[in-house]
Here is the input.
Amino acid sequence: MQEIRSLNLISRFGAALPMRLNVQDLWHSFIGALAMQRSEAFLWAPVCMGVGIIVYFMGAREPSALWGPGIILAVLGVYRFARPYEVLRFACLALLCVACGFSAAALRTHSVYTPILQKKMAPVQVSGTVESLEYFPGENGVRAVLGAVRIEKLGEDEMPRRVRISFRNGEGLSVGAHIEVLAGLNPPSPPVLPGGFDFQRYMFFKGIGAVGFAYGAPRRVEERGNGGLLASLQALRTRIALNAVQKSAHNGGVAAALLVGQRTAITEDDQEAMRGAGLAHMLAISGLHIGLFFGFVFFIVRFGLALIPRLALRYPIKKYAAMCAMLATVCYMFLAGAGVPTQRAVLMTGVVFAAILLDRSPISMRLVAFAAIVILLIAPESLLSASFQMSFGAVAGLVAFYGELRPVWSRLYRKAGRVRRVGLYVLGVSITSVVATLATAGFTLYHFQQLAVYGLPANILAMPILAFVVMPFAVLHFLLMPFGMERIALSVMGWGIGLILDVAHFVSGLDHAVLYGRVWSGFALALFSAGFVMLVLLKGRLRIIAAIAFILCVIEILYIKQPDILISSSSKLMAIRQDNGSLLYSDLQKERFVREQWAQGFGLQKQKAQKWPKEGQNGNLYCAENGCRLERAGSRVAFLYDVQGFEEECLWTDVIIAPDPLPKCERARVIDRFTTWRGGAHAITLREGDAPEIVAVEDRRGRRPWVARFQQEWP
Here is the structure.
C-alpha cells in the first residue's frame, strides 16, 4: 500500500514538471529579458565609465597614455562593421564608455600631477600665497592652503604645487596674501593598513604635496592682489565662514558648513552625534540643501512676481522664477566649494530648470546618469570617494523607488486634505530616510564601519527644522549680507541648528544607537555596488542577479579572515587580534591616530584600548623583558624590543617584528624599521597549515604617481 502511494505522489509531481529542459525556450526568455533593457541602455554609460576608472586605479603600474585613445579608435573602427548586429553594437558602445572612463582618469592624473615631499622636513622656511583658509572650533587655530610655494632646500622639480599648514591662530592670514613662515612639513600619510583610506592619493588630486604646522606667526611679505575671480571667491567664502563661527557661538561650525561647505569648525562631539543619529548628510551640501535652496528662491521670486498683476497675467513668471532660482543656486554651489555632492545636485537641478522652461517632467534615472557622466569626466577620482558613492547611491535608490511608487503616491496626494497631507509628509520623510539609508548602507559600512540604527526618528524630527527654519534663513543670510544685516539670519539659523544638534545628541546617546562593523574588502564593495546598480537599473526577471550579488557580498564579509597582526609604517606601534576580535596594542602612548584608525577598521570604536602585558601571558601571547612571542594557527611570531635575543628568535620563529633595524634571518621573515620604511604599514594573517600571509600597504598601492617613493619614475 505504501509503495502505491509513493508511485502516485511521484506521478503527480512529474506531471507538474516539463518533460525535458527546453534550452531554446530558456534562451528566448533570456533574450526577451535583455530586450526589456534596450530603452534604458543610456543608464549604463556611467556604469561602464566607472568600470574603466576602476581598471585604471587598480593597475600596479601607470599605464601608457596611448592605451585609452588606442582602445577608443579601435572600438570606433569595429563599430562601423557592427551596425547590423545589435548585440555587438551595444558591446562596442559599452567598451567605448569603459575606454572613455579609463582615458579620463589617466588625463586627470597627469593634469593634477604634483611632486610629493619625500621625507619629513623641520624646521624649514616656507613661502607661498594663501589660497584658502579653514577654521577650527573655538580658538584651536586655522588651516591654510598655500600656492606658488617655495621651500628652502628643495629644487624646482621637487617643489609641491601646494602645501597645507596649520596655524595656532589666523592672525596675519588672509586669502591672497603672500606669506613666509617657519614650519614643519611631512608627506601626506599613506594608508594605515593595507586597503585603507589613501590620504596621500586624496591630497595628490587636490594638488597638495606636503602637510604640516607652523612654529610661529607668519610674516606677510606682500599682498599679491586679489588673484582673479577664484581668489576673490575664496576670500568671500573665508569671510562668511569666519563671520558664522564668530557670531553663532557654539553652532557656528555647522552654520559655516551649511553656508560655504567648511566643516572644520564643527566640534568632534557634534560630528560624532550627527553621525550616530544618521544626520551627517545634513553637513554636506548636497541634493537636499540645493533642492531646498532652489525651491525657496523659486517660491519667493514667483510669489513676488505674482503680486504684480501686469507681470503675472502677461508673462511666464514661473519660468522667470526658475531662472532666478537657478542663477542663485549656481552662485551657492561656488560659495559652497563645489564638492562632488554639490556638483551632482546642481547638475540635476539644472535639468529640472530646463524641464520647467520646456514644460516637461524632469525626474528620471536619466537625470542621475547625466550628472554622473559629467562628474566622472571632470573628476574621475571622485568615483573612489565616499561622497560620490553615497550621494549617487541615495539619489539613484530614491528615484528608482519613487518611480515605482509614483502612480500610487500621486493618487493619494491628489485626494488628500490638510490632515492627510501632513501625514503624507511624515510618511514621505520616513520612506525617504529608510530608502536612502538602505541604498547607502553598504557604502557607509565600507568607508566608516558604522551605521545609525535610529536614523529614521532622528530625520523625522530634524528634517522639518532644516527645511523650514535653517535653509530659508541661509538664503536670507546671503540677501542681507550686502547690507551688513546677516547677523539677524545667523541668529535664527543658530537657533534651528541648536535644535538639530539637540536631536542628534539625544538620539546618538540612546542604547545601541550605532551599529559597528569591520573593514570590508574591495571585492565586497564591488559586489555590493554591482548588486545595487543591477537592482535600480535592470527591469523584469533579470533583477534576480542583484540578489545573487548581495548574497555573495554577505558571504565575502562574513567569511573573510581579518589580519592577526598589524604593524604601523614607523614600526613603533603593533597590534594583535585576540580570539574575541579585540586588539592588544604594544603601546598606548605612540601614534594615537593610527591606533584609532585600526580600532575603527575592526569595529572597536567604543571599546577601551588594551595594552599587551609587559611581562607575563595574555592568551597565546607570552611576554618577557626583551619582547613577546605569539603562537597561533601553527605559526610562531616574535616581537623584539631590541636586538638582544635575535639569534635565538631567528631559530625559533617564522616572523620577527621589531621597531629597529635587524640583521637578516635565513629561516624567518624579518619586518623591521627598514621593511616598513620601504613597504609602509603591514598586516599579517596566520592560517592553519600555511605560511603567514604578509601584506604591505605599498604592495596594494603599486608604483603610481600618487605614491611618494615612486615619484622619481615620473617626469
Observations:
- The chain has five domains: 36-111, 121-225, 249-516, 522-536+543-557, 565-708.
- The longest strand covers residues 121-135.
